[in-house]
Amino acid sequence: xxxxxxxxxxxxxxxxxxxxxxxxxxxxxxxxxxxxxxxxxxxxxxxxxxxxxxxxxxxxxxxxxxxxxxxxxxxxxxxxxxxxxxxxxxxxxxxxxxxxxxxxxxxxxxxxxxxxxxxxxxxxxxxxxxxxxxxxxxxxxxxxxxxxxxxxxxxxxxxxxxxxxxxxxxxxxxxxxxxxxxxxxxxxxxxxxxxxxxxxxxxxxxxxxxxxxxxxxxxxxxxxxxxxxxxxxxxxxxxxxxxxxxxxxxxxxxxxxxxxxxxxxxxxxxxxxxxxxxxxxxxxxxxxxxxxxxxxxxxxxxxxxxxxxxxxxxxxxxxxxxxxx
Length: 325
Ligand code: HMG
Ligand code: MG
Known about the structure:
By secondary structure, the protein is α/β, with parallel strands linked by helices. It has helices spanning 12-16, 26-37, 61-70, 88-100, 129-136, 140-158, 181-193, 210-222, 241-251, 278-287, 296-309, 317-323; strands at 7-10, 43-48, 80-84, 118-126, 161-167, 198-203, 230-234, 255-258. Strand 7 (230-234), helix 9 and strand 8 form a beta-alpha-beta unit. Helix 7 crosses helix 8 and helix 8 packs parallel to helix 9. The longest helix has 19 residues, at 140-158. The protein is globular and about 45 Å long. Residues 15, 202, 204, 233, 266, 275 line the site of magnesium ion (MG). InterPro entries: Aldolase_TIM, HMGL, PYR_CT. This is hydroxymethylglutaryl-CoA lyase. Keywords: Lyase, Metal-binding. Belongs to the HMG-CoA lyase family. Pfam families: HMGL-like.
């Protein structure tokens, strides 16, 4: 039944790579997306229209978007590609590409096909003022004003679906564990009222624990945020990502972000390690009888390939076990 279906959002090509110091060639990024598309994943975060001065690794995002529209990668399922955009400048860089291919993607509200992928823009707010300043160079209120413009323009101009992240929801590198779940609920409600289609709750620092995940989700539910509008974005810094995932599943959440090979880390969160590995997430869901639609062996192979390609250790426990490494 649909209650056993889980949507995984692969964030490896963006969250996984954004923090890499060495420049990763465009061809490697495109090859990663192409390989991920073959595993059964349906949603892939492919780039980020942020300032190249702030995050140089994401500077290929226009080329990536262009390539994905011109040559949608083949796979078992129709795909949706997601790109971060923090402001109108980032959105207009995305629009420059979209205006050249205005019919190459499925507008929001229509089903993506293998020929016409879906497209999504993602804005990213913060649960604390200090993280907002570090990550976006402005306070939360100002960021929300900008996101309102971005959400409206994304929808009005190209009928794009919009996801909205909230970072540091379970712990902040600057304010510690002292993140108010009511503040998270306020920001989530504001973003949903602006028209965001989905809120992804980011445990940027991996400081989330099972009881605090439960407390946060209860608080959001009480504030009227619906489970179907929420995704969880766990980082595995303290090894708690799957425990927290279990708590969120129990609460009724069915969308989870993950990154192949456990790649990742946020440039504005010192010491942050990768997202929960896609391999670990797929394996975990299989043990629970949940259906992800993703082929475990196929995604393990992608994790093995990309970590070797960029010279990083494979951070997926399941990946290493399956590979016998
Ligand atoms: P700013 O310096 O305040 O921007 O940065 P500004 O508006 O003052 O503009 C300064 C210059 O940047 C101007 O150029 C702008 O045109 C340019 P100049 O006139 O000096 O030549 N500019 C841009 N260029 C390209 N793309 C843009 C853009 N915007 C301005 N979009 C800004 C503000 C938001 C741009 C900056 O802070 C920034 O890029 N931040 C992004 C930080 C980031 O990418 N963080 C990682 C993603 S979030 C994350 O990883 C967490 C997540 O995974 C969830 C979780 O784990 O919690 C999502
Ligand atoms: Mg992240």
